[in-house]
Structures are given as structure tokens and as C-alpha cells.
Design a protein that fits this description.
By secondary structure, the protein is an alpha/beta fold. It has helices spanning 3-11, 252-255, 266-271, 295-309, 324-335, 374-387, 403-414, 438-441, 443-447, 451-458, and strands at residues 34-44, 47-61, 71-73, 78-84, 96-103, 113-115, 161-162, 168-171, 175-176, 182-183, 191-192, 195-197, 204-210, 217-223, 234-240, 275-280, 312-322, 342-346, 363-368, 392-397, 420-425. The longest helix is centred in the middle third of the chain and has 15 residues, at 295-309. 49% of the residues are buried.
């Protein structure tokens, strides 16, 4: 399975695109007959990437006469060239004014999400409490070797880096219009992107919630179902990000991975129409002492406020999160046991001596066996919930499985019809993130890419 096929399987649609940072002013258009150039981005498990450029011409272009060799993009690998009626990638090219120049997502400079800025001169890495590692630059001990190393303190923040989605294109070969006119290549002329397209992420509205109870202000992203009608009730999914996203722009939680956007994809919405809420936390909400700050309750108050503003089915609200967000998911279920009907917990943990209230909740928990904190604490929690009457199905998966293999594995787990499913990935099978917390941070790159788990969550 190639990378493109994998991403198609993760979201069930041809592409999930997301916003990139706006290009700087002063971009040039030197190519004759070209009106504009648009950067096209896509959210992968590891974050947003610049994966294509849409070049708008002054006439419709004959897609059958385009060649990959007719375009170059500075510093990138061109993989495919075709025409379309809009600045969007497609598997079915058609004649239109846009020439789509697809770029390899494996290029070293394709990734726009760069994570938190390094601290104290260190290299960029995890600043996540659940990772079992100190902020980058403060400890040389990988989380996979020392789970006792403290994470960032409550209320701390960082400034994640999101690179500009900018590309410079040259037309080196001929382009033919549908009228038969040839636009000769001019290798020395260039066009630089001046905007981005984001047909999925643009569906999220950016809002601010002022909580009169806690005195906190919380920015968040809200996806409203396309055909929303107050006359019917809709489920809701709350996604909470990990601590490496703390301090980012409000859209940071949408572009750092699939955890938020996957629920809003057209294919997922066709199966399970729902609201999606993705808060953007500016400070760490819960740290290694498991004593949450005020934004913990602000999140609850936000959800309750939304249920009064929209026609949301309060009996079918779902929580999910990765690492810090997974910790919040568990903590919210313990402190507010009637708030969520089902939760998806990814690479996170909560003290097992507080886990008894989880016994009768509907949970899917996914961790990596190489995660030195989330895995052993997850095992302890499963023992507690079983002792308190919870029914648990346990399974071990290879995170490198194909989508077909994942589908079979999901069917096997769900056939047991237990209220809690506990899946652990074999160590060394999740993607490497280039640091000591790879077994931890690599978990959610796969965990949110499996449609069958999302279906199970939404079927409660």
C-alpha cells in the first residue's frame, strides 16, 4: 500500500485538505496566461503537508495533453499534473482553467506542522505530560526509557511552529488549451502561490468562549453538519489535543493530525452526521499530578453551552483526545460520568485508583506497548475496571497493518460486544517521530486513521 492509498483509507475520501499559513505578500506572477496560483494542503497523521499547487490559466486547459515534465516546483518533487475546474486534487481530471501540480508528500520539506519550538536550545520534540518526557532540551533521557521524567507543568505554554504553505512553480513545457492554442514553456518565468485552499478545514468556524463560571477564555473550532436543521438532534464529538499543540493558533488542533478533522470528513459525515468541537488550549490543562486547571471545567461548560445553542443530542455526545487530551477524556468521564456516551482514549492515562467510575462507561482505549507510561498505567486501569464489573476486550495489533487488516481486527474486537475495548500496538510498529517519545506520539498517527473505530464510537 502506498502513502496516497493509506491516506485515502484513513478518512474514506479522496483527500482531506487543511489550511496552511497564509503566504507572504509580494508573491509574483511572471508566467504569461497565468492568473493565480493556490497552495493545496492535506492533513496526514503526522500533520499538515503542502501536497499540490493549483495554477489558474486564462483559458480551459486540455488535461490529456499535460505532462508531468512540463512543470517544476522549487525544492519539491512533482508526481502528477492534470487539469481541473477548481484548485483541488482529484482522481478524475477534467478540462478546466486550473492545472493541478501534485507534489510528493514524502519530500523532506512537505510537512508544515513542525510542533513546539525547542526549549533551552534543544531540538523540537514532545512537551507532552503523558509522554513521560520533559520539554525538549531539558532532558536527554528518552521517554521510552524513563517514564518518571516530569512533563510540562500545569499552565505552561509553548509556541508550535506551522510553516508557510508557499510554493514557486515554473512551466517548463507546453500547455494546450481546449481551443488548441499552445502556451509555450518559459523555464525562467515563475509564479508563487498567494493563497491556500482548505475545503475541509474551512468547514470549521473559529470561535471564542468566555466562561463566566471559571473566568477563563477558550478558543475553539466548531464544525456544524452541512445540512443542519434545528428540527432534529445531532451527535457531538469533542476532540482534545496533546500538549505539543498548546499555544498554537486556533486552527493548530485542526492541522497537527487527524484527531479533529477525521470526524468531519465527507465520508464520515455521510455515515454519522455530527457536530465536531476542537478546543485550542493556550496552556497545559492537566499535568503529571493529574490535578486539572480551570480550563478542564471550562471545556465542560463550553459543551453545555453549545447544547443550548444548537440542536445537539445530549445522550449521544462523545469525547476523544490524544495524550494530554486523552488524560482529559478519562478525567472528564470520571468527574462527569453522565456527560459522554462513548469515548476514544489515545495514548493517555489516569491514576488507576480513581478508575472505578470508568467500569460501566463505553470506552475504546488505544496505546502502544512501547509507551512507557500510557501502556502500564492502561493495564492497571483495565484491571481496576474489570474488578468493578467492567467488561473488557483486549487485543494486540501491528500498527503497520493495512486498512483491510484493521477492518478485520476491528470486527473481531467489536464482535465481543464489551463496553470497553483495549487495543495496544506492538512496540516498534508505530511511526517514528524522531525523538524519545516516538512510541507515544506515533500512536495517534495511526489511531485516528482507522474508520472502524470511529464507527464504533458513533454507534452508541
Amino acid at each position: 500500500m502506498n502513502r496516497r492509498q493509506f491516506i485515502l483509507g484513513t478518512i474514506g475520501v479522496g483527500a482531506v485538505t487543511a489550511i496552511g499559513t497564509a503566504c507572504s505578500s509580494g508573491s509574483s506572477i511572471e508566467m504569461e496566461h497565468v492568473r493565480s496560483a493556490t497552495a493545496i494542503t492535506q492533513v496526514y497523521g503526522e500533520g499538515q503537508k503542502l501536497i499540490a499547487v493549483g495554477i489558474e490559466y486564462d483559458s480551459n486547459i486540455d488535461t490529456t495533453k499535460l505532462a508531468t515534465s512540463s512543470f517544476t516546483v522549487t525544492g519539491r518533487t512533482v508526481t502528477k499534473v492534470y487539469a481541473n475546474t477548481s484548485a483541488a486534487i482529484t482522481d478524475t481530471p477534467v478540462n478546466g482553467p486550473f492545472v493541478i501540480v501534485e507534489l510528493s508528500p514524502t519530500d523532506s520539506n512537505a510537512l508544515l506542522w513542525a510542533g513546539p519550538e525547542p526549549a533551552n536550545g534543544g531540538t523540537s520534540g514532545s512537551t507532552d505530560p503523558s509522554a513521560g518526557t520533559a520539554p525538549a532540551g531539558q532532558s536527554s533521557t528518552p521517554a521510552s526509557q524513563d517514564p518518571s521524567v516530569a512533563g510540562p507543568p500545569l499552565g505552561s505554554s509553548s509556541k508550535p511552529v506551522i510553516k508557510s504553505a508557499t510554493a514557486t512553480v515554473s512551466q517548463t513545457g507546453a500547455v494546450t488549451t481546449t481551443a488548441g492554442t499552445t502556451y509555450a514553456g518559459t523555464p525562467t518565468a515563475e509564479v508563487t502561490t498567494t493563497k491556500t485552499v482548505d475545503p475541509l478545514v474551512d468547514l470549521f468556524e473559529q470561535k471564542t468562549f468566555s466562561d463566566a463560571t471559571t473566568g477563563q477564555t477558550l478558543q475553539y473550532n466548531l464544525f456544524v453538519p452541512k445540512n443542519y436543521s434545528p428540527a432534529r438532534k445531532y451527535p457531538l464529538v469533542l476532540f482534545m489535543h496533546d500538549a505539543s499543540v498548546v499555544g498554537a493558533d486556533v486552527k493548530g488542533t485542526l492541522v497537527q493530525g487527524l484527531g479533529a478533522v477525521c470526524w468531519a470528513s465527507p465520508e464520515d459525515q455521510a455515515r454519522h452526521e455530527c457536530f465536531v468541537v476542537a478546543p485550542q488550549y493556550q496552556t497545559v490543562v492537566v499535568s503529571d499530578d493529574y490535578n486539572p486547571g480551570p480550563l478542564f471545567e471550562t471545556t465542560v461548560n463550553l459543551i453545555n453551552t453549545l447544547t443550548s445553542q444548537y440542536s445537539i443530542d445530549t445522550a449521544h455526545m462523545h469525547a476523544t483526545g490524544q495524550s494530554m487530551g486523552a488524560m482529559m477524556t478519562l478525567g472528564l468521564n470520571i468527574r462527569h460520568p453522565d456527560l459522554f456516551s462513548t469515548s476514544y482514549v489515545v495514548a493517555g492515562q489516569w491514576p488507576s485508583d480513581q478508575a472505578a467510575p470508568l467500569a460501566h462507561k463505553r470506552l475504546w482505549v488505544t496505546v502502544s506497548q512501547g509507551d512507557a507510561k500510557a501502556y502500564p498505567m492502561g493495564n492497571e486501569t483495565m484491571a481496576v475496571v474489570q474488578d468493578n464489573g467492567g467488561q473488557v476486550t483486549t487485543a494486540t495489533w501491528d500498527a503497520r497493518a493495512t486498512q483491510a487488516q484493521f477492518a478485520t481486527a476491528v470486527d473481531d474486537v467489536t464482535s465481543k460486544e464489551t463496553n470497553i475495548n483495549y487495543v495496544s500496538f506492538l512496540p516498534g510498529t508505530v511511526p517514528s517521530t524522531g525523538g524519545g517519545a516516538s512510541e507515544h506520539m506515533g500512536t495517534w498517527q495511526i489511531a485516528y486513521s482507522i474508520p472502524g473505530i470511529r464507527d464504533w464510537v458513533m454507534q452508541s
